[in-house]
User: What shape does this take?
Amino acid sequence: MYVILTSKPGQFRTEPTPGLVPVEAYDYMFHETRKARFVIAAITGTPRIRVVEEGEGGAVNSVPCKFLQHFETIEQARRELRSLTAFGSVRSRLDPVAA
Assistant: This one.
């Protein structure tokens, strides 16, 4: 089972906890600017995700994975990422990065 974790520079980042293993990561590039990082992570057990708000006084939340969309295969997660980042003729792309 897999989930997609999202981080947005300057806003928040998600951090895997025990039970989440990052498998692949991608930077979402929009007109040569990184707008987000997506991490596809494998799930074991019932893990939680740390969501850390960036900036002064940023809150830290622990969110159960059960609230995220789950994918049976890594290919289903990749397909979902492609659909999330496709906007007709808009210049955007997913650049693979180290997980």
The chain has a mean pLDDT of 91. The two ends are 17 Å apart (CA to CA). Strands lie at 2-7, 12-16, 20-30, 33-43, 48-53, 60-64, 92-97. The longest strand covers residues 20-30.
